Amino acid sequence: MQNFDQTLPANDHDSSLLEGLFQLAVSGHTQGWEFEQIDSEVYTRLQQAYAA
Fold first, then answer.
1. Burial code of 25-38, b = ≥16 C-beta within 10 A, e = fewer?
2. Are 24 and 38 in contact (CB under 8 A)?
3. What share of the chain has pLDDT > 70, as a percent?
4. pTM of the complete model
5. How far is CA 23 from CA 10, 20, 30, 37, in A?
6. Torsion sign (Cα): 29, 31, 39, 43
7. CB of 20 within 8 A of CB of 42?
8. What CA–CA distance (Å, rounded) separates 26 from 9?
9. How many whole angstroms separate alpha carbon 33 and alpha carbon 35?
């Protein structure tokens, strides 16, 4: 079985966005501008990826 962490490039922006969103959600900081901005970016990328 391959280690997932080793397959991602160090500068993977998508992973960083998801990690940031996760950390804010876990810490309960879902009402601030930072969460809103990251949430919007992730949602937009998901729409683009799955729009068909």
1. eeeeeeeeeebeeb
2. yes
3. 77
4. 0.67
5. 19, 5, 10, 14
6. positive
7. no
8. 25
9. 6
